Amino acid sequence: MATESASLDATDLLLLTLLETDGRATALELAARVALTPTAVTRRMRRMERDGVITGYSARVDYTKLGLAIEALIEVRFSGKTRPQVMDETIRQLPEVFGVFTISGNYDALVWIRVQDVAHLRELIDTLRVSPGVADTRTHIVLASNFLPPRLP
Fold this sequence. Notes:
By secondary structure, the chain is an alpha+beta fold. Helix content is about 35%, strand content about 20%. The chain has two domains: about 10-50, Orthogonal Bundle (Arc Repressor Mutant, subunit A), CATH 1.10.10.10; about 65-140, 2-Layer Sandwich (Alpha-Beta Plaits), CATH 3.30.70. The chain has helices at about 10-20, 25-35, 40-50, 85-90, 120-130, and strands at about 70-80, 95-100, 110-115, 135-140. Helix 2 packs across helix 3 (about 40-50).
């Protein structure tokens, strides 16, 4: 399935980079950084939203302050005959899941989770291991997260 690529110029790419860094930046603030009027910035942002380049705006949350001190990535291998819908349902039912990535290699999925503590992590892994179709898991506890600045073409 081919996807249509949006036609973006250097100013659009700069706007995207600035928005990824600070999604709450105002059109006035962005305009000063890209040498355009606030109206022109707003028009560009609306076009990129309409074209699906900008899919939303979000906040960065400190999950440790919400009691979710441990972040981990769990590689999950499903048995050979497990249907994709079963894989999705198995992982979707876990409230600790923040993201799921279908991957190539020895495992089928990479599951990004956050839990309260090691006991909670052990409970989650045990639940996952006895879920339908799950053949194996491998867990990686995140020691530090460093988000890099956006790198657009």
